[in-house]
Amino acid sequence: MENYLYEFWLLKNEDISYGKKAKLVDYFYDSYNLYHASKSELINSNLFEPANLEAFLANKAKFDIESEYELFASTPFSYITIENPAYPSKLKNIYDPPYGLFYIGKLPSFYKTVSIVGARRCSAYGKRMALELGEKLGTNGFTVISGMARGIDSYAHRGCLDKNGITAAVLGSGCDVIYPTDNRQLYSDIISGGGAVISEYQIGTSPVAMNFPRRNRIVSALSDVVIVIEARDKSGSLITADFALEHGKDIYVTPGRIGDSLSLGTNRLISQGAGVIYDTDAFVGEMLERYGEKANAVTKSSSNKCILSPEQKKVYDLFDDYPKSISTVLEESGMDYLKLLSLVFSLEKLGMLAEVFKNNYTKVA
Questions:
Q1: Do 281 and 190 belong together in one domain?
Q2: Strand 225-229 to 250-253 pairing
Q3: Residues 43-98: pLDDT tens digits?
Q4: Which CATH number does the domain housing residue 330 bear?
Q5: Which of 37, 129, 141, 261 is the right S-S partner for 41, CB 3.0 to 4.6 Å?
Q6: Closest C-alpha among 102, 116, 124 to residue 149
Q7: Alpha-carbon gap, residue 223 to 14, rounded angstroms
Q8: How many angstroms separate the CA atoms of 221 and 249, rounded?
Q9: 301 assigned to some structural domain
Q10: Is residue 295 part of a domain?
Q11: pLDDT at 304 over 70
Q12: How far apart are CA 199 and CA 215, in angstroms?
């Protein structure tokens, strides 16, 4: 039987924890030797509790490797394990490396990689930064890695794709489980755009909260640099930043306003020594210098600018990338309330303003 079938058997085995599989392969050299190890050899490895060992042996006895592999091969999904020479080298030397990854699409080389993470409920400013950085990094040949969550993750993927760049999403669910469900089109575009959707978890695994911290270590490990765009005080993005520190990666952030809840996490990272992205072109240029390359310009997409009346322009200019209330703008404008409301609604209809929560609007990036 071919060795890749034994790799598949171990990858599919759910009686062994995710963290223990790589340790077993390290001890027994490969999955073939593990499969054929005697009970006493398994006990002597000190990697099994008695109950786990019995479950492991029972699983091995009933698992029909060839038929299970044929069933998997009929799906659009693939896998790669630490036994394969093509396994991403950046994952091999971290603490608790994944034994294997399931994926759909085409695995990038992970040579020039930047991860972009941040708030799910981001501001218009955060959205603009994620899209802009995704575009400029994608244009310059970087693979953009993120987690396909709402907000910053999704905008970073989308910005990269809009410039025909390669992006990879690392999920906290099975790579067949699209989460959030409204990212179905993004999921499809990542795959059709030459990238991949990746997961350490079994096909069909639900996106439960405990999966995401483990997922974040992979996002960090696959990257050369981690960018955090907007993070609250106790944000999952800060877990990725912690892993980046552990992995010896550089961390960059986009600075935010003092007192803004979306900036607490990122501003704290600055105080701890994270790099500051003060200009996106300068940042991309600095990144390219690492590889002895020069930047390619990002061509701006042509868009029909709305022609605003003087009153509309006056109201539009009073809003910001951060949510601002109608009552604040009312004071600043000195307008009649109903007149102001009418102008705000007209700007919203034109796609120039967006209501992010009741009576609070931001400029649309």
A1: yes
A2: parallel
A3: 999 999 888 898 899 889 999 999 999 999 999 999 999 999 999 999 998 999 99
A4: 1.10.10.10
A5: 37
A6: 116
A7: 28
A8: 8
A9: no
A10: no
A11: no
A12: 8
Identity at 201, one-letter amino acid code: Y
In a domain, 83, yes or no: no
Please state, in angstroms and rounded to a whole number, the distance separating the CA atoms of residues 201 and 198. Answer: 9
> Considering 74, 103, 135, which residue would you say is the last residue of a domain?
74
Q: What is the pLDDT of residue 351?
A: 82
The secondary structure element, H or E, covering residue 53 is helix 50-62
φ, ψ at 88 (rounded to 5°): -55, 120
Strands of 162-295, DSSP E: 167-170, 196-199, 225-229, 250-253, 275-276
174 and 27 share one domain: no
CA atoms within 13 A on the CB side of 167: 36
Q: For residue 351, is it within any domain?
A: yes
Last residue within a domain, chosen from 230, 259, 289: 289
Tokens of 315: 């109201």
Query: Phi, psi (5° rounding) for residue 174?
Result: -60, 150
Which residue type sits at 187?
Answer: Y
What is the strand order of the sheet 167-170 is part of?
78-81, 100-105, 196-199, 167-170, 143-146, 113-118, 225-229, 250-253, 275-276
CA distance 217 to 241: 9
* Number of residues in the chain: 365
CA–CA dist 212, 219 (Å, integer): 10
How many domains, in total, are found in the chain? 3
Domain that holds residue 323: 310-363
Residue 353 pLDDT > 90: no
How far are the Cα atoms of 87, 200, 243 from residue 91, in angstroms, in the given order?
Answer: 8, 12, 12
Best CA proximity match to 161, nearest among 132, 126, 189: 189
Are 223 and 326 part of one and the same domain?
Answer: no
Helix (H) or strand (E) holding 315: helix 310-318
Tell me if residue 276 falls in helix, strand or coil: strand
Both 278 and 201 in one domain: the answer is yes
